[in-house]
From TrEMBL:
Name this polypeptide is given: Cytochrome b
Source organism phylogeny: Bacteria, Pseudomonadati, Pseudomonadota, Gammaproteobacteria, Lysobacterales
Domain (Cytochrome b561 bacterial/Ni-hydrogenase): residue spans on this chain: 7-175
Cofactor requirement: heme b
Keyword terms: Cell membrane, Electron transport, Heme, Iron, Membrane, Metal-binding, Transmembrane, Transmembrane helix, Transport
Amino acid sequence: MSEPRTHFTRTARWLHWSMAAMILAMLFIGVAMVASLELRPWLIDLHRPLGLLILLLALIRLRHRRRNPPPPLPASLPTLQARIAGASHVALYALMCAMPLLGWAMSSAGGYLVALPFGFTLPPLAPQDPALYTVLRSAHGILGYAFFALVLAHIAGALHHAWVRRDGVFESMTGRE
C-alpha cells in the first residue's frame, strides 16, 4: 500500500496559486468598478472574461481534486479546526463557481452581453428583467464581500499553519519541504 501524499500535485499547486492571483485581482477590480465611473467600462471588459476563466479553472480544479485527493491534515490539528478548514474550502469552491454564474446571470438580466475575447459572446443565462437584475446585482455584491472575507480568513489560516503551527500544511501547497 502506498504512503499518503504529503504535498499537493504540481497541477493542484499551479491551479491554486494562479487562481489565487486571479481571484484577488477580481475582488479588487470589482471594488474599483463601483468606485470609478471613468474606468468602469474597461474594468467590466476585464472582469467578465476573467470571471469566466476562474469558473472554468475551478471546474478543472474540482475534477483534478477528485482524481488527486489533497494530502491529509495533520493528526495534531484539533477536530474543530479541521472541520472549519473543510467547510471553508467548500465555501471557497462554491463561491468560485457561483460568483461568475451570478455575474453572467446579472449581466443577462440587465440586457448586457457577456463578450469574450476573439469576438465570442455568451448566450444569456437569465431573461432580461430589471427586477431580477437588481436582485442578482445585490447578491453578486454581497457575495463578493463574503468571498473577500473568506479569502482573508484562508490567508490567515495559511499563515497560522506556516508561522505558528509549523505543521507542514502551508508547505504542502508551496511544494517546499
